[in-house]
């Protein structure tokens, strides 16, 4: 089975990207067995022009001018030759056996559509403040436990353990239909776009997988270290992330009739935000402020659209 590793990137940090590529170079599955596709999503810092990829016999850098992580992923999907595609962010350091394990899981289960694993944080050179811990999941730091988990439908809602974009593996045969789905949909989820912190593109892939009758799964043996710079644990960044990701999450769930919350009239949103300011005591602590911004994003994502 041939894999394709897809790395969409926008103005990557050279040190972090080098670590990502070093981990790929060190994979137990030799580079002759997988394809490397790096998608330059309209970068302007010139970092990709200085990356040494001579170690990989089947690599390419693809330019995608249309801004947005979803568009970057789709550009990579279209160039991919593998039966299974592995999404890697430009700050994801894969464990040495990651690609070989992905090959094993997808080879032995034809019904497996998407999969991911355990993601731990790499806080290099600093110690994060304790108040930030409840928000680490927003930074794609996740540990659903030590057991394999799988879901084959959306009957119980969106599976909490479903893979996120960091390290997600997905069957290529399913991606072709997903591309048509999001390309034709008005107001498609674009995910990260420039400085926007909206999200949901990876969740939409899982929803598509499940709607096609395939399984999505979590395998704890799949391991990634996610490099988290100190700036992503600052109050302002976390507040903006909570606001934008929560709003886009509500919009995505509504699109697929999976939303557990009722819609709200637009006129009420301002009042709800004021009430939440006091509920979360947003003035008292960074944690309260970040939670309040998440509530604001939720209300905006639930605004009832006119008939």
UniProtKB/TrEMBL annotation:
One Pfam family in the UniProt entry: Glycos_transf_2
InterPro entries for this protein: Glyco_trans_2-like (IPR001173), Nucleotide-diphossugar_trans (IPR029044)
Keywords of the record: Glycosyltransferase, Transferase
Keyword Protein biosynthesis on entry: no
GO molecular function terms attached to this record: glycosyltransferase activity
Annotated Gene3D superfamilies: Spore Coat Polysaccharide Biosynthesis Protein SpsA, Chain A
Organism listed in the record: Mucilaginibacter ginsenosidivorans
Keyword GTP-binding annotated: no
Regions crossing the membrane: none
Residue ranges of domain Glycosyltransferase 2-like in the record: 4-130
The protein, known as: Glycosyltransferase family 2 protein
Family of the protein in this entry: Belongs to the glycosyltransferase 2 family.
């Amino acid at each position: 089975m041939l894999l394709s590793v897809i790395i969409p990137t926008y103005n990557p940090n050279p040190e972090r990207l080098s670590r990502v590529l070093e981990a790929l170079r060190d994979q137990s599955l030799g580079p002759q067995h997988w394809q490397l596709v790096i998608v330059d999503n309209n970068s302007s810092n010139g970092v990709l022009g200085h990356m040494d990829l001579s170690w990989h016999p089947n690599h390419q850098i693809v330019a995608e001018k249309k801004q947005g992580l979803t568009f970057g992923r789709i550009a990579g999907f279209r160039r991919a030759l593998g039966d299974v595609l592995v999404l890697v962010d430009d700050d994801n350091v894969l464990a040495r056996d990651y690609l070989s394990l992905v090959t094993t899981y997808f080879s032995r289960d034809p019904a497996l559509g998407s999969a991911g694993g355990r993601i731990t944080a790499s806080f290099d050179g600093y110690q994060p403040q304790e108040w930030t811990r409840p928000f680490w999941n927003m930074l794609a730091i996740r540990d659903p436990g030590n057991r394999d988990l799988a879901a084959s439908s959306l009957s119980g809602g969106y599976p909490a353990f479903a893979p996120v974009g960091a390290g997600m593996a997905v069957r290529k045969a399913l991606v072709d239909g997903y591309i048509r789905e999001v390309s034709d949909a008005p107001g498609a989820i674009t995910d990260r776009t420039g400085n926007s912190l909206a999200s949901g593109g990876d969740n939409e892939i899982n929803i598509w997988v499940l709607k096609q009758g395939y399984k999505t799964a979590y395998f704890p043996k799949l391991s990634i270290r996610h490099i988290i710079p100190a700036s992503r644990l600052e109050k302002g960044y976390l507040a903006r992330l909570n606001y934008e990701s929560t709003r886009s999450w509500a919009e995505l769930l509504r699109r697929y009739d999976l939303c557990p919350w009722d819609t709200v009239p637009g006129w009420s949103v301002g009042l709800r935000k004021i009430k939440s300011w006091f509920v979360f005591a947003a003035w008292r602590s960074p944690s309260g402020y970040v939670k309040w911004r998440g509530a604001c994003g939720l209300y905006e994502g639930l605004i009832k659209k006119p008939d």
